[in-house]
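fwd from M.: "can u put these together and see what the complex looks like"

so here's what she sent:
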Amino acid sequence: MPRHVVARAEELPPGTRKLVNVAGRDIVIFNIKGELFALSDKCPHKGGSLARGKLTGLVVSAEPGTYQYSRAGEMLRCPWHGWEFDVRTGRSWCDPNRLRLMNYKVSVEPGAALVAGPHVAETFAVAVEDAYIVVETK
Amino acid sequence: MNLDAPFLVEPKSESSADPERQAKSRLKIIDGDVHPALRTPADLKPYLSQRWWEHFQTWGGRRRSGMSYEPYPKSQPRASRRDAWPQEGGAPGSSLRLMREQYLDAYGIEYGMLGPLGLTGQSEFNLDFAGAIASAVNEWQRETFSKPEPRLKSAIVVPYDDGEAAAREIDKRADDPAYAQVFMLTRSQEPAGRKRYWPIYAAAERHGLPVGLHVFGASGHPYTGAGWPSYYIEESSGHSTSCQTVVTSLVMEGVFERFPKLKVVLIEGGFGWLPALTWRLDKLFERMRSEVPHLRRRPSEYIREHIWVTTQPMEEPKDPRHLLDVMEWIGWDRLLFASDYPHWDFDDPVRAFPAGLPRERLQAILTSNGKAVYRLA
Amino acid sequence: MTQDITGAIDCDMHPRLPTPKALSAHMDEFWRDTVEVRGIDVWDSMAYPANAPFTVRPDWRKARADATPAGLAAATLDRFHFAHGLLNCLFPVQTFRDENLGAAFARATNDWIRHEWLDQDPRLRASLVLPIQSPARSVEEIERLAGDTRFVQVLLLAMGEAPLGKSRYWPIYAAAEKHGLAVGIHAGSSYHQAVTGSGWPSYFIEDYAAQAAGFHTQLGSLICEGVFVKFPKLKVVLIESGVSWLPPYLWRLAKSWRGVRQEVPWLDRSPEEFARDHVRLTLQPFDAPPDAAHIGRIMDQLQSDEMLLFATDFPHWQFDEEAMLPAGLPTELKRKILIDNARATYPRLGSQP
């Protein structure tokens, strides 16, 4: 599976997101409390840019009139029609089987073992200790 | 089911023009519903008298819902796309710069019909205040949007619950080519065909302007005779009922007999409801025509000749052929594309249409139908 | 040409409205006295103007077919060999602002139905008229008469004071579900507020047309408030609603749901699925051209063979002669519409009184 360097880890502290283009595909990467998630940017509904979407929690209910809230910040709402996607799996909440985002494996790799990608890692003298964000595509 | 229309190329990014894509599309889009917004109410001050500016400062707007904004909280801030908030500040729709970049240029829009909502004077209890605000909004639209950007056509917003004042406002603005339609809301104090509104239709017909009725409005009544629903999902799914009331009333009151050249556009109610209503009215007319002897034709004939509907929000049945059936039943010349930019239930002209729509039909909906309805040049 | 509809169950028939005096014969002493002392001679709503042709088809009017069980049977049950006719009495108990009067007239109406109609013809069944002004008293009325299995449904109107999905009405659904009663919502209004979202229209034709909007609101309310989550065995029948309005409304509701699901998270599946599982519609009126092509397309849009229930809407003038079924229905579907769907919706039909 091709792996692409897309950013330095320090560019993406917890609570932030970054839109990158990897081999012609727009991909948005989230750092949610230290965990990285990368999702295709284009909403499968009508093409809104998910990089502009809202992160909220998961809302479920077993009893009409009650609301159970969990997993704060792990549900991505498309900025257009509000469709919900689980950032962990890319699955849309309303149609878990039919509609999901392509999600990409993301890891933070140490500097040395990288293949040059669209974001050319500038090497600085101290960069050998820097962590890079690497995205693996399918 | 892939609902992408195969004929238009997708925009690469929302925030920049794509000349290559525009050239490929070769379809000049006329958008029947674009919403400009005030940055702040003070934007209206230059167009209001001192008396009315001070009134507004002290008393505010007082709409027939009892609320200063809408009676149901929206699902997203200002009911807008989250990516439509201008970097320079102000609400979605308030920045001509962003509207151009993100929408007009990005999609190759030839003309966009403005439909102001919010602080417009419409639905106000105080009808004199309503008239003053409507007039100010009409000037604000022209100066802020239409003058610098000829692709955007202003609407003549009227205080429709005061028929005579509304007609005067139409007469005042009608000769100005910045304005392409008269603008009302679907929930008026009485059904739209009632005689108090006839001065509006007389003026519109006289000047050759269509009357656009956009969903919303506060009539002082719940949204249907069944009462106020609890949830925003119910409210936002229920707008078609107000369009049905408008159409039924215009037909049954004989508005199209009295104003045979009048054109009416129902905006932002979608269109799936229209065939069922048309058939229902025809059937009722067969049985009940003695109640309405002033009608000389069947309801479906009046509807076919005088009513247009904008396409947004586009219906999304699982089988796109169902939608094509509905479009065929309405009439391919009666559908007008609308985006509802910058609202959240926005229809992207590239992706909104059902698969299987023939290109010449798409062309009619995107362009030539609008040219037959709006006063554009 | 008579269509062969032997054994059909007619799910919407209307006995001629009783007068308050006729109903008072079924009231206790106080209420009987009240009707007379206060001069409640007439209690009519604006619905179905008595002399309008639509209200009673001319040949049925001439025969006074809606006035007696024998007349109704001659015009329909005998003539077409229906298995059952389901009576929905539209005496406007819902219009009383006084819930005591409403409850008294509801009780009397239901007793009048039993004695003057159900007792006279074993094929007849009926809806229990409820005093919706008071959910508590509506439940009392259900409990009072649920033992009479000739009542297969409770009757509510498409327009009232608040949408029927609201929690204040849930005790009614609990009682209906418990007793296997369907919830029937019939075109009509209590007239406690204007019949459109823009106030009162000039003409009756507009009022009747507007009932479709009432059904919109009620269906959306029942689904979105979670009534079918709370009462998973409940069946709701939309009576005299128009049919062809339903698919586009469900498309809209489903589309909205995908974007605003978090507001009503107890809906664990699409509104369309709730409708297909729980909601039924009577056949007349079917607002569409009666040819096979149109009917076929709309049936395809409905995406369900189980939703439609045969009905004549007797004596309302919905069709001429005997053209009471849409053209071009496949045999299997026709059987479902005429018989099977009603038996599934009204399990109490199978019982003996």
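replying to her w this: Chain B has a mean pLDDT of 93.
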